Fold this sequence. Notes:
Elements: H1 3-14, E1 22-24, E2 27-29, H2 31-49, H3 57-85, H4 95-113, H5 117-139, H6 144-153, H7 157-164, H8 180-200, H9 206-226, H10 229-248, H11 254-274, H12 276-291, H13 297-305, H14 311-316, H15 320-326, H16 335-368, H17 373-389, H18 404-421
Antiparallel strand pairs: 1-2
Helix pairs in contact: 1-4, 2-4, 3-4, 3-16, 4-5, 4-18, 5-9, 5-18, 6-7, 8-9, 8-10, 8-17, 10-17, 16-17, 16-18, 17-18
Amino acid sequence: xxxxPLRGLFFLAAxxxxxxKVPAFGxxxxxxxxxxxxxxxxxxxxxLVNSGRKYVWEFxxxxxxxxxxIGIYFxxxxxxxxxxxxxxxxxxxLWQYAKRLSFFLLGFFFVLNVERGESKAIKTVLWAYFxxxxxxxxQLVAGSIGExxxxxxxxxxxxxxxxxxxxFSAKRVFGTAGHPNAWGGFSLFVFSVVAPFFLDGxxxxxxxxxxxxxxxGFALINVLFSSSRAAILGLGMVSLSLSVWYLFTSRVRxxxxxxxxxxxxxxxxxxxxxFKERIFNLIFRFSVLFETMGGGRDEQIRAGLSVHHGxxxxxxxxxxxxxxxxxxxxxVEVEPVYLFINYGFLGVSFIFLIxxxxxxxxxxxxxxxxxxxxxxxxxxxxxxxxxxFSLGYFFFQELVVGTPFWLYAGIFMACYQRSLSHR
Length: 423
């Protein structure tokens, strides 16, 4: 593949979510959509004509599962829409899956086809995360800058008002996502993949590690001020997993373990002192969550499941359009249930196998002690975080900030392949 356009496309993909979506053809069209339209046919053609090249079997499994899922549910979704509602309507939400596959393939082929591709890819996405999270931090600033960024990215006037017109302790920042829950999920992802680099440090100078520490801080601030309960719970699971990893794996030196414990205790203390009003606000939000049985998500689940008629629907799903017409118009915000209603046991099995394959590769790479080990650990933590987060909001169906994980997963899969070839 030609390196020059590949570099340009990868750079645009890394920064894609910084560009607001614009109304076009009755939908919100973003740079990520335009890139995927260009990438999907070209990269799939490259995969097919180079099918003899020896890629790791996990790569083929992820790609084939994505393609099978898209192909099968294009026909099943169209048929279900006609059977249940008497309308010819294609399952357009499958575009989100094609887009994720496109970004996965771009990350994978960039690393394998560009000289020192893994180093360039990681540095590019880390700088992109830094700039993108900076927007969320600036939205907290009172005045023209914060208000301009809020108006630029807000999905609705209601979202903008919840950021601009509230006191500092009650603000809900939404960054480039335009929605605080989605932004909390993205910030959680950045924390998950950056923290292992910051704690490992083999690939970076002290100056770069300082910048990584600032990036980790930006991610934590954005999770906190998104007030996304799903993201905060995900952060708790990621932090617990990260602590267990560094405290109980033999590859980590004792001084590093002591440093991690001391830094964690100091950070918690400073956090509690600096953001005590914010903590009280979050405690109130969680109390409301418990009082309302998940913020009304229990009612969403009941309404969503009511569209299933019999075991056949449980096997193949009822389609996204049928769920939104007959169940919950905006979709059930407990994503495993949402996916089950749409795609049944069959579709959920496809998605589970995709994520399980990536997690398996991440575990192998993380335990290898290889130069790429922090990348593997980061992917594992991101899946742990998003699995928790998806109990309260969307991961697979997120429209604005859903691609960064898949671009990073493609980078990771290529590094995994290279790590096996170096053994």
